[in-house]
Amino acid sequence: MPHKDGIRNSLKIGMPHNLIARKIFLTYPTKIFTGSEDLGFEICNVVSCFFKIPINHIQFSGSGKVGYSYFKNREFIPGKSDLDIAIVDLQLFNKYSEIVYGITKGFTDLTKFPTKDDTSVYHQYLRTLVRGFFRPDLMPYCPQKNEWFKFFNNLSSKYYKLFKNINAGIYASQYFFEQKQIDVVEKVLEAEGGSL
């Protein structure tokens, strides 16, 4: 598997984890679209047009990108695995952050945040936000959240034979995107016993 070999070989020569993440997630081809590049373009183009952002601000991550989930320890399974989309766009990140700020009246009204196990996800939302990552599933209930999930549910329905779901999050910058992907690099290192 070229992605895993790329990570392993880079770890062997002592390449910093953030550079490995940059190499694999920003320059290697998306594994599941190898031989089906037009399909990858089609999905990126729909997302680009919907959000009115440059198409090169859309990246793929997760098992769809590398062909394997290092967190679930299994290969990408067409129709059963998710396609994870990373939108790397500061303006869109700010737009949705401002929506949340407005809905919550400057975080003085937290009642619209979803709950998980009877606990508000507000703190989880903030933890991801300060890491430059906006997770729409954690945002408060509002029309913009409904619109987001309607769009991605429709997209998922169109490609249901290939993906269980198509999900997306927004990164404030390439730096934050790379930092998040370091988790995969560290999972590979852990799977190899912690040293290469």
Share of residues in helices: 40-55%
Q: What is the chain-wise order of helices and strands? A: HHHEHEEEHEEHEHEH
Q: Which strands sit side by side, in order, in the main sheet?
A: 1-4-8-7
Indicate the radius of gyration in whole angstroms: 17 Å
Strand content: 5-15%
Biggest β-sheet, characterized? 4 strands, mixed
DSSP summary, beta strand count: 8
Which regions have little confidence, pLDDT < 50, spanning 5+ residues? none
Instruction: For the record, give the distance between the C-alpha atoms at the N and C termini, rounded to a whole number.
Output: 17 Å
Mean pLDDT: 94
Number of helices: 8
Explain what this protein looks like in three dimensions.
Helix content is 49%, strand content 13%. The chain has 196 residues and is an alpha+beta fold. It has a domain at 2-88 and 143-191. It has a 4-stranded mixed sheet, with helices on both faces. Strands 2-3 form a two-stranded antiparallel ribbon. It has a two-stranded antiparallel sheet with strand order 5-6. A hairpin with a 4-residue loop joins strand 2 (68-69) and strand 3 (74-75). The longest helix is centred in the last third of the chain and has 18 residues, at 174-191. The chain starts with a helix and ends in a 5-residue tail after the last helix. The mean pLDDT is 94.
